[in-house]
Design a protein that fits this description.
Blueprint lengths: L1 H28 L9 E7 L15 E8 L3 H30 L9 H17 L4 H27 L12
Helix pairs in contact: 3-4
Length: about 170
């Protein structure tokens, strides 16, 4: 009976240490994996078979379980920051689409450029109201402005996302 108890104790110890080695190798293999958190093996002693004798040997060790080591505060912050990053990335993409639709910044035929030409033509008419060419230039600039504004409206409407109720981060 003594030999079998000793062999059983050694077998439990070897199995517990094998679990610990497997977990260690798993931790090392995933050290560069984003989002991975380290694991720890919890081991507890097995109670002696006869606890009434003060010098009775224990029955070795057993694995109670494998525990993931995480900081809950950091996990919460990471999830919150990831949501904020996604929100602002979506906003930035929408603004880039708006820039492209308005042909900004300072592209040829941009809304800003056409507006400047429109108001400059009005200034020219104010300076020389009796010249028909200046009045014709105002009409032409107004038609160009209306066309560019219509094209920008069409481009903005076509680039509008299907869901418009994105909630801002907290």
């Amino acid at each position: 009976m003594g030999l079998s108890v000793g062999l059983n104790t050694m077998m439990r110890a070897l199995m517990a240490q094998q679990t610990a080695l497997d977990t260690t190798s798993h931790n090392i293999a995933n050290v560069n994996t984003p989002g991975y958190s380290r694991q720890r093996v919890n081991q507890v002693p097995v109670a002696p078979s006869d606890p009434s004798q003060p010098a009775s040997p224990g029955n070795g060790v057993q694995t109670l379980g494998i525990q993931r080591i995480r900081d809950l505060f950091i996990d919460f912050q990471r999830r919150a920051d990831q949501g904020s990053a996604s929100y602002y990335e979506t906003k930035a993409n929408g603004l880039h689409l708006a820039e492209a639709a308005l042909n900004e910044p300072s592209g040829d035929g941009s809304l800003r450029q056409v507006l400047t030409q429109f108001f400059n033509s009005w200034r020219d008419v104010a300076n020389s109201p009796d010249q028909a060419a200046m009045r014709t230039a105002v009409v032409q600039a107004g038609a160009t402005l209306a066309s560019v504004a219509r094209n920008a409206d069409t481009a903005l409407r076509s680039s509008r996302p299907t869901r418009t109720s994105a909630s801002p981060p907290r």
